[in-house]
């Protein structure tokens, strides 16, 4: 398994978006702030040319990805799943493996179910998950908080969207620095 002990580098990363869907999202804790954070994260990752994989849990029941994110990620691979873990879908897991990336940035809902199980499976598969803690949530605060604690204890790297975007930028001379700075304002 890869273990990131230094900085997270853009060339090593893929982003996996987990189940940010219409019928569940209104019930999620702090969903307006979460939506704003997710939009900023996705826009910033796109500036860094990070590959994106979109996962959707049982679309017939839970719906599509929320509209504000759907317009940003429509051109990227989408995988529907019924397993809680995104790795339980062979096509989704193959897409992650075939990317050649070893660092998997995770964001989505619900932290204590689908995000948690995805991160645990990614660890088992030899990937280094990076959890964007202000871009995950659950219906209940305690569920979210305990899941984040558990994931950190098993080796998932916690970060925030702003910290991650600047870490990927590395230098104020990076051509995307000004756009990243504007995004996080």
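Sequence proposed for the structure above (185 residues):
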């Amino acid at each position: 398994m890869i273990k990131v002990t230094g900085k997270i580098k853009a060339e090593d990363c893929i982003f996996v978006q987990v189940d940010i869907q219409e019928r569940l999202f209104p019930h999620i804790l702090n969903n307006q702030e979460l939506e704003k954070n997710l939009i900023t994260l996705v826009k910033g990752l796109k500036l860094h040319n990070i590959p994106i994989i979109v996962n959707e849990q049982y679309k017939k029941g839970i719906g599509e990805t929320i509209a504000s994110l759907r317009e940003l990620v429509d051109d990227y691979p989408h995988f529907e799943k019924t397993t809680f873990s995104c790795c339980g879908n062979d096509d989704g897991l193959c897409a992650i493996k075939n990317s050649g990336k070893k660092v998997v940035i995770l964001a989505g809902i619900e932290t204590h179910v689908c995000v948690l199980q995805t991160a645990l499976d990614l660890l088992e598969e030899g990937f280094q998950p990076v959890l964007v803690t202000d871009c995950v949530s659950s219906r209940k605060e305690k569920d979210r908080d305990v899941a984040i604690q558990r994931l950190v204890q098993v080796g998932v790297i916690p970060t925030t969207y702003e910290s991650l975007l600047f870490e990927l930028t590395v230098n104020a001379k990076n051509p995307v620095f000004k756009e990243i700075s504007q995004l996080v304002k």
